[in-house]
Amino acid sequence: MRRDHFELEAHNVDWVETGEPPAEPRVVIDFHGPKETLTDRLTDAEGDLLEAGETDVTFRLQDSLDSPDATGVVSVTDRITGDFLLELNEDADDVLRFVRAAREYGQSTDDDAGRYSVVLRIDGETVATYSKSTFLVYDANGSLLRSKSLIPSGVEL
User: Fold this and answer.
1) Cα dihedral 100, 91, 130, 11 sign
2) Residue 138: CA atoms inside 13 Å, Cβ hemisphere, count?
3) Which DSSP string do the residues of 78-133 spell out, in sequence order?
4) What is the tens place of the pLDDT at every residue in 17-45?
């Protein structure tokens, strides 16, 4: 699968800056490629769709965070095998804004972990929706940026 087969849209992130009532941030990732390719990656050995707890969402910077045009790669991985389920390129500012909204949403709902949802679609048809509370952000060298990540309290990495 190629990264350009994916489109990502973030929803419910503007309220952090506009003062509107909090809403759970949601990211919609739409795949425009061979359906079987992504479907195979999103299922386990028994053919069952992976559950939210079996997946991880991360962002790896490709540039310095100080760069005004910093970009990186959003990845959804299989937590058990470590296999990449999908990857796509995104602007760092957009991703960090999303993580901030998820953190703020968690604080507004007394959920210190923060919360957001990921909707995976194939050509507009929803295949999976995951509720998540962790979003790890790494620099270009692969070091975890704890202050930029969404990490629930009590989670040891």
Assistant:
1) positive
2) 13
3) ETTT--EEEEEEEEHHHHHHHHHHHHHHHHHTT-TT--EEEEEEETTEEEEEEEES
4) 998 999 999 999 999 999 999 999 999 98
Alpha-carbon span 150 to 133, nearest angstrom? 7
CA distance linking residue 146 with residue 34, whole number of Å: 36
Report d(CA 129, CA 120) in Å as an integer. 6
Instruction: Report helix, strand or coil for 18.
Output: helix
H-run or E-run covering 17: helix 15-18
pLDDT per residue as tens digits for the range 74-90: 999 999 999 999 999 99
pTM for the structure as a whole? 0.91
